[in-house]
Amino acid sequence: MFDPALLRTFLAVAETKNFTRAAAQLGLSQPTVSQQIRRLEEAAGRWLVVRDTRAVRLTDNGDAMAGFARTILAAHASAESYFTGSAMSGRLRFGAADDLAMTQLPRILRHFRQGHPQLNLELTVNQSGPLYRRLKAGALDLIFIKMHPGQNEGKLVRTDSMVWVGLEKTTIEPGQPVPLIAYQDPSLSRQLAIDALEAAGRTWRITCSTREVNGVLAAVRAGLGVAVFPRSLIPSDLVMLSNRLELPALGGVDFTLLANPLAAAGPVEALSSAIMDRSLA
Questions:
Q1: Is the pLDDT assigned to residue 43 strictly greater than 60?
Q2: Neighbouring C-alpha atoms within 13 Å toward the C-beta of 72
Q3: SS3 of 211, please?
Q4: pLDDT number for residue 88
Q5: Strand partners, 13
Q6: What pLDDT shows up at residue 20?
Q7: Residue 137 buriedness (CB in 10 A; 0-12 / 13-18 / 19+)
Q8: What is the average pLDDT value for the chain, to the nearest integer?
Q9: Would you tell me how many other CB atoms lie within 10 Å of the CB of residue 266?
Q10: Which of 51, 110, 149, 163 is deepest in the core (most CB within 10 A)?
């Protein structure tokens, strides 16, 4: 039998790759986290993590334990909800900005559904602006979107910086317009890019206008120009160009959860907590 408390601690370490961050996430001291990992390793009879001065990584047995831990904790949550009569049911209409789906959000939603099997989760993926309007119209219960910093609305999940992104070999000849790949208007990243370029006195031209993040990425990978992304969401095959090509600074962005006040509070709070408590990196 593996103690669920030890499994939760192990997953926090596995996801953060850091004992200090895992301790902060769980509200525990770092020595307590280390002790609980040792107890789990003793129970399993195997080494689960490799520790060094810079980082923590999972062993092959640790990777296997992570999968088992998620399954065990999901089953534990389902059983607890069933026998305490607190299992949530009904429908939760959740909207997410399409580029935020590039984070660990899909994994979080999968675990949420495993823990709440009687709840019908309906996912809508779109741009932040349309999702915000649908929430205000009562068509969604909870949304996870990008917003301008400091708007003091909803729950702030994380703050990030917006940066210019392109291929490593991207160049812009002096005096030539900046080739801009952007979402169709209205779009927060599109407006940030245009406002920054015009404030800096740079000319620009739209080389690709698309509704989806996959369209933006395809155009960037085809070498059609540069795009604006949250720094934490840059794909591994692209590079940040903000310190090159004399491109202007873009400012920050807030990843924010906003709820419909008329929606059922239980499901909304449960999913909000799942997103707030888990690493999106």
A1: yes
A2: 16
A3: coil
A4: 58
A5: none
A6: 86
A7: exposed
A8: 87
A9: 15
A10: 163
Per-residue exposure over 162-174, b if at least 16 CB sit within 10 Å of its own CB, e if not: bbbbbbeebebee
Q: Which token pair is 55?
A: 């980082």
Work out the burial of residue 53: count CB atoms within 10 Å of its CB; fewer than 13 is exposed, 13-18 middle, 19 or more buried. exposed
- As a residue count, the chain comes to 281
SS3 annotation, 72-126: HHHHHHHHHHHHHCCCCCEEEEEEEEHHHHHCCHHHHHHHHHHHCCCEEEEEEEE
State the amino acid at position 136 in one-letter form.
Answer: K
Place of tokens 């059609």: 224
**Distance of alpha carbon 8 from alpha carbon 77, whole angstroms:** 12
Cα–Cα dist 136/103, whole Å: 25
Token pair 């996959």 in the structure block, residue: 214
pTM: 0.66
User: Among 66-75, 134-143, 206-215, where is mean pLDDT lowest?
Assistant: 66-75
Angle between helices 105-115 and 265-277 (to 10 degrees): 130
Please calculate the CA angle 43-66-118 and round it to the nearest 5 degrees.
110
CA 280 – CA 82 distance, rounded (Å): 29
Quick one: DSSP state of residue 226?
B
pLDDT digits (tens, 9 = 90+) for 241-259: 977 788 999 989 999 999 9
Burial class (CB in 10 A: 0-12, 13-18, 19+), 151: exposed
Model pLDDT, residue 119: 84
